[in-house]
Amino acid sequence: MSDAGLLALQVRTTNKAFWRNPASAFFTFAFPLMFLVIFTSLLGSGTAEVAPGVVIQQDSYYVAAMAAFAVISATYTNLAISIAFTRDAGILNRCRLGSTSEDG
Predict the structure, then answer these.
(1) Which residue, 60, 67, 66, is CA-closest to 45?
(2) Are 39 and 63 in contact (CB under 8 A)?
(3) Among 14, 32, 82, 102, which is most exposed with the fewest C-beta within 10 angstroms?
(4) In terms of Cα–Cα distance, which of 61, 36, 66, 39 is closest to 50?
(5) Closest to 71 in 3D by CA, of 19, 23, 31
(6) Rounded to whole angstroms, how far apart are CA atoms 53 and 96?
(7) Are 58 and 43 in contact (CB under 8 A)?
(8) Which helix (H) or strand (E) holds 4?
(9) pLDDT digits over 46-95, tens only?
């Protein structure tokens, strides 16, 4: 199989595994949206000075912050969730990645 075919297979498999894990989907999509709605409704009516003479609306500021939070959540949080999920399912042991003995 070619490198492009292997890459497509890996992307497809990882995408399926992601959407089959509700915790990953929640923390990637719903959690940042909840924070965005809460922060924008409570604190988004003013302006913020981001540099001398540069003033933006606070709701725009929160959209950028929540976009960064979603990216960080998608990478680090979901990495921890997926490793714990695959270990509990026994997938790491089948791949010899979750060995419990000292000698591997």
Answers:
(1) 60
(2) no
(3) 102
(4) 61
(5) 31
(6) 57
(7) yes
(8) helix 3-19
(9) 888 888 988 888 888 788 888 888 888 778 877 787 788 778 888 777 66
